[in-house]
Amino acid sequence: MHRTWQGAQKRENGDLFTNESMSRTQDPNCKLAILVPIFNEDERTIARLLDSLTRQREVAPSEFEVICLVNNDLPGTRKYEEVYGANQRVLRMERLTDPGDEHRITVLDCSSPGKEIAGCNVGKARDRLVHEATKRFRGNGRNGVLSHVDADVYFNDALFLRRAIDMFDDHDVIGVAGGKWREAFLADYPEYEPEPLRAALRQIGLWKQCVELANYLNGEPVLQAFGGSNMLSRCYESVAVGGIRSLEVDEDKEFGRRMWRYAEANKRKILVKKTELKVVALLRISERTGSSFKAQVETVLRGKELVVAENGPS
After folding, report:
1. CB–CB of 11/133 below 8 Å?
2. For residue range 7-31, what is the model confidence (pLDDT) as tens digits?
3. Pairing assessment for the beta strands 230-234 and 269-282 based on DSSP bridges
4. Distance CA 96, CA 104 (A)
5. 204: part of which helix (H) or strand (E)?
6. pLDDT tens digit string along 163-199?
7. Are the C-beta atoms of residues 99 and 106 closer than 8 Å to each other?
């Protein structure tokens, strides 16, 4: 434990960690923090996530908290006006400005002028969230659980948080790799005819499964990989392995591998619960990020086939 604390202290002095204290203190009973990086999101997406948390059962509100980090780059950078506008609308959501005492939601504004993250990306946002949450848990003397999710997921399983917290009752467990399935809300895309779009999404779902199978056969351990949309880790160990690294594209897949190596070296455990601990992730029909699916939808609607190449998706 002491060695892990030293790692946390060392990382605390990095560029992303601030000495600012959040206005809302952590409940002494808090066991799990849900970390949500928000970048250029629709308010409906955030509302779905927050609504799903109100439906969680067999878990007291004091046992978990939500930390949202709304972030964008500096003025003058690519798509700044679009991203800044979307972020500011999210920051004005009543669910975030006045969540009430029962739902412990804390918002970090890294969007407004003077508060931006220079060169922001999902890795920087996740790393900042890890360190802010670790600082809060340390104040309570607890090696708390971090639930890393995307802003476009929601918890369809009403017992998700109860199961997640209970898995970490075993103090040797330092991480859990969860699963997900994808869902698209057709009403969000009125520019498409519903039935052809529904058929296209079914085909894309099968294509994604084929991609994962191809990656697995090529040696990619997809069944054990940590994915940013649903992974859980203890806060001290998350910092001890170096946190989550800044990447311009995609997630820090090495974070999961570093956690596995740490577990092996220290005789700790990482659980793979791809079926038992699932979230629902939004299948986006846009060009917002590399993991959005507009190109695939357009390909299918034009009557062309999606191809699974030897080295992954095409």
Report:
1. no
2. 444 444 344 444 344 667 899 999 9
3. unpaired
4. 10
5. helix 194-217
6. 999 999 999 999 999 988 878 777 778 888 888 888 8
7. no
